[in-house]
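Example 3.2
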Amino acid sequence: MTRSWDWATGEGLLGLDDLGEWDAAFERGERNLGTAAIGLAFNCPLEDASPRIVRATQLPDTEQRGFAFTAVGTAARLNGALTPELYEVLRAAGPGRKSIAVNAVDDALTFVPFRDLPPWLKRWAVYRAVRDKMEGRWLRGGGRGASSGAGRAPWMTRHWWNGESRTSRA
């Protein structure tokens, strides 16, 4: 059974499993190569799809480049690992909040075991955990922490579990 993919509209490209077809479309300069890279991440072994996903992350079209980074995250989700080339692409794009790769980095941190991450991504994970903890404390009312009653309304008692009414005045 021969399949045809509509490169102009992207129809059916998430089912792409032919590496040669992706290579030929890349040489022709077809649209929707980032979408097709997601299809490769779904349907091909990581080692075979990785070089094509890396090429897709370098596309000039920002939207398709974003789809290519979605393919990186998909590969991390499905395989629980990434290739060194894909880690380098993530590092080059930057792991920060304003990066095009932010979701792919989050997927790598979520689905790849910590021991298998490269050192730079381990450092980023620790930095992000500390930053999120500090932001959480700041949002709860300074550095007081949740155990000291920060964020609680003033009419709530601190020791309602000792028989006092939860809404009695303190």
